[in-house]
Amino acid sequence: MLLEDFLQSPHFLSRIEASDEVAGEVIPLDDWEVASKLSYALWGTMPDDSLFTAAEAGELRDAAALRSQVERLVGDPRVEVTVQSFHAQLLEIEEFYGVSPSSTFYPDAPGDLGELAITEHELFIQDLVFEQDGGYREMLTSTRTFVNDDLAAIYGVSGTFDDTFVAVDLDPAERKGIFTQVGFLATNASSADPDPIHRGVFMAERIACLHIAAPDAATPPIPATEGRTNREVIEEHTEMPGSICASCHSTLINPFGFPFESYDAVGAFRTEDNGFPVDTTASPLIDGEPTMVDGALDLIEALADTADVHECYTRHWLEYLHGRPESEDDASITERLGDSSVRGELPVKQLLIEAVMSPTFLTRSTEELP
Questions:
Q1: What's the pLDDT score for residue 62?
Q2: What average pLDDT does this structure show over 81-98?
């Protein structure tokens, strides 16, 4: 019964912040609360002896001592699990397992393509963040990735490969960053064709932080191509003037998806679709304005140069680290970190440091949420 009481106690199930000393419009967390919040945000577990000692000595109210502890936490290998977990959730890596290309259209596609894409993704994040000390700009634009023999064949990389993953540089005329890798492209595709709708929705919502209304439940399925390109089918199906679909598809969804028509359902680069040249031109809404792009690389460069996109990435990180939805109080830190990121001056590890050093992380509201 004693163990049952322990396991059901709110103090076991929740990290309770009970400080009540008001400072202006917020309540600063005490040293023990800061230590716990830092450790669980960055390591996913309780504080170590060093952090407990700093809390007991009252050092975590001092900015210099706090920064020293935060830098130590971010420099520890345990933070790697947090970084991988964040990107796995942001980019929906579990969906990679569902990749199942048609053996009729792609007879040479490996049966474990989804698992291979997950391995590539994890190695890419590990290398970029912890070996290259890269930031979000590099994540969007880097041509460096990791392949085995199966992925090398899809990417068209020359050389001798086996089932071991090795670092390679992809053709910069065909690939840039995480969204021209197999995982994103093959996941957002049917078994036979690329899916510009799902590719577009993902880019608009997750990467540009644009709101898209839920589709109508009665939306009919995509018809067969029947001598048309994949893009022509999608345009005719979703952009008919006056239809309920057109308002979102023509301005928000399709313009983010059509630039990726150069990649087929397994993520291989292509210049033709059903015997016709692919059309990758579009005008996605970037920084509040329709922006003309020609292809995925053009789109990615435009996104990498846009502060709103970097603020979107920062916003996702703040929500993850704080364990709550975005707050109006986060706006200043989001804008500051987004501005540094778009200039290429904010590696991911430094972003973590600045995020948990922010006032909104180290305080709580005087008003409890209902």
A1: 95
A2: 97
